Amino acid sequence: MASRKPVNRPSVKHPSHKHPLHIFKAHVEDEIICSGCELELTGEAFKCTKSDCDYFLHKSCFDLPREINHKSHPNHPLTLLHSPPYESNAYGCDACGQYGSSFIYHCSKCQYDVHVGCAFLPDTLEREDHEHSLTLVFNSPCKGREGMVFMCDVCKETVTENLWVYHCKVCDYGTHVHSCAVYENHEAKKRGEEEAVLEALRMESLRNARMELANMRISNKINNSVIHFGDEPRYHWVRK
C-alpha cells in the first residue's frame, strides 16, 4: 500500500522573521496574538512553518507599506520598523499613549512613534449614542488652554493633551481612539450590545497586558494619567 506524501503548502518570506511563513485561517477560539500589531488574530493570516515557532501575522500586517505619509506628522514620512529602535525594545505610541513592542511606524528625526493599527484609524466614525459623526483629531481639544484637561466622555478618564481623540466639535464630545470610540464599557442599552461590550473589554485587557509587559522592560515608568469617576465635567482646572 502506497504511503501518503505530506502536503507541501507554498511558503513566503517576510523581512520581519527569519523563517518562511505559510497561509492559514485563524479563529477567535484560537486566541492567537499577531506578532506585528499585537492584537488578536482572526481570518486569513500567516504563521511560521516551524512547529516550535509562535510567529503569526495578519494578512494586513504582512502587506503593510514600508513608508507612509500621515496627517498627524506632515513634515516627515513614517517608516515601518519591525521592532522598536530603542534599547528597551518597547515604545510609547504617540497616538493612543499605550506601549508597543513590535511593528511600529517611526520618524527617526522626531522620535515620533505610532502603532501600525493607529496609523490606519478612520478619519470619522459613528456612535449609536451620539447624533453627530466623530472626527479624528491629533491632540486633545484642550491643548494650549492653560489649566484645563480633556476627559473622555465614555470612560471619564483624562486624555493627555498630545494624544489623538475622536471628537464632535458641535457638542464638544470626545472619546479615546480605541475601545471607547466604538463601545461603551457600561450600561448596555440595547439587546446584543452586551456581547460587543465584553469583546471591547477583552481587547482592552489584552492591551493592558501588553502595556504591563512593556513596563517591565522599561526602567523609568511613566504614569501621569488621572482617573475620575462619576458624572464629572470633562474639563478640569489644574491647580499649580
UniProtKB/TrEMBL annotation:
The keyword Repeat is assigned to this record: yes
InterPro entries found in the cross-reference section: C1-like_sf (IPR046349), DC1 (IPR004146)
UniProt keyword Protein biosynthesis present: no
TM helices/strands, residue ranges: none
Annotated PANTHER family: CYSTEINE_HISTIDINE-RICH C1 DOMAIN FAMILY PROTEIN, PHORBOL-ESTER/DAG-TYPE DOMAIN-CONTAINING PROTEIN
Superkingdom as given in the UniProt entry: Eukaryota
Keywords annotated in UniProt: Repeat
SUPFAM superfamilies, sorted: Cysteine-rich domain
Name the record gives this protein: Protein VACUOLELESS GAMETOPHYTES
DC1 domain sequence ranges: 15-61, 71-119, 130-180
